[in-house]
C-alpha cells in the first residue's frame, strides 16, 4: 500500500508541475485567441460543477472532460487555423478545473454547519480526477497539436475521412491514457492489482466514457464549420445523458436502502450477531478484488453477501450465533433457497438471488451454470464460514490472532471439497481482514 500511495503522489505531483509550467509559459508569452480560450475554460469549469456519480462510486464530469478533449483536438475554427498549442491546452484545462472549485468553496461556507462537507481540493477523488484530466488532455494535445501546427495534418483535408480517422486514433490513445491513470490511482487507493483495475476501467469506457470521447471529437470537428456554437450544440445531448445517469443513481440508492434493511432484519430479530452481514460483505469484497472481479461483479457480490442470511428469518428457532456454516448441508441449502425466494421479490438484480441460492452448492468439480454467479456464491460461503468460525472462537475466549489461524485451518481442511480452493487460497493471501 505504501508503494501505491507513492504512485498516486507521483501522478499528483506530475500534474501539478505540468500545470505550473503551462501557466507560467502562457503568462510569459500571452494567450493565443483569448476568446476561444475563455469559452473552453468556461465550458470545462461548468462541466466540473455538474458532476455525476457512476457505479462503483466513480465521480465523473462528462461535459468538462469532453470540453477539455475538444480543445486539445481543436484544429480549424470556422475554416481558419488555430495556433494555441499544447501548453495553452494544459493551462486552459487547469484553469477550468481550478475555477470549478470556487462554487464549491462558497457552498461550503454557506453550509458550515455540516462538518462532513469538505472542499474539493481536500477530496482525494476530486484530486485524482483533476490529475487524470490534466495528464490525459496534455497527452492528447501533445500528440495532436504539434502535428497540426507543423502542417503535417495538411496532407489531408479537415473535411475528409482521413482527418476523422486521425482524430479518432488520438482520442482513443487519450482514453487509454486516462484509463491507465485511473487504474494506477485505484490501485493506490484499494490495493487492487493493476491488470484487474485496468480491465475494469477499460470496461467503463463503453459507458459514459465513449460518449465523452465522441462528444469531444464532434465538438472539435463541428467547430471547424460553425465555430464556438459547436460547444452548446453538441454538449447538450451529453447533459441530457447526465440526467439519465442521475435517475439511474436514484434507483441504485433505493436498491441499496432495501438491501440494508433486509441485512439489518436478521440482526434486529436476533438471528445473527451484530455486524455479521457487514463483516461478511467486507471480506467477500476483499476476496473478490483479490480474484480479479470488476466493479459490477463486486457490487452484486456485496449485495448478496449483505443478504445471505435472510433465509434464517424462516426458522422457528435461531441458529446459535447465526452460524449457518456449522449446520448440516441440507439445512444450509434450505436456508439459502428460502433466502433466495425472499430476495427475488425485493426488486434487486436477479443475480443476487441466484448467488444466495447457490451458497450451499458443493464445491467439488467445476461450477455449473453461470460461472460468475457460482464464483460469487463460493466467495460468500467462505467469507460467511470465516466469520462464523471467528465468532465461535471468540465465544470460547480464544484470542483474535489465534482465532484467525484456527478458522483458516478449518477452511483449508475443506479446501476443494466444501469450500472453493481458489477462494480459500485468496483468503490466506488477504488475511481475512475484510477490507471493504
From TrEMBL:
Segments traversing the membrane: 86-108, 134-151, 163-185, 205-223
Domain of life: Bacteria
GO MF terms, alphabetically ordered: hydrolase activity
Hydrolase among keywords: yes
Keywords assigned: Hydrolase, Membrane, Transmembrane, Transmembrane helix
Family matches, as CDD domains: HDc
Record-linked InterPro entries: Cyclic_di-GMP/3'3'-cGAMP_PDE, HD/PDEase_dom
The name this protein goes by in its record: Metal-dependent phosphohydrolase
Organism from which the protein derives: Streptomyces kaniharaensis
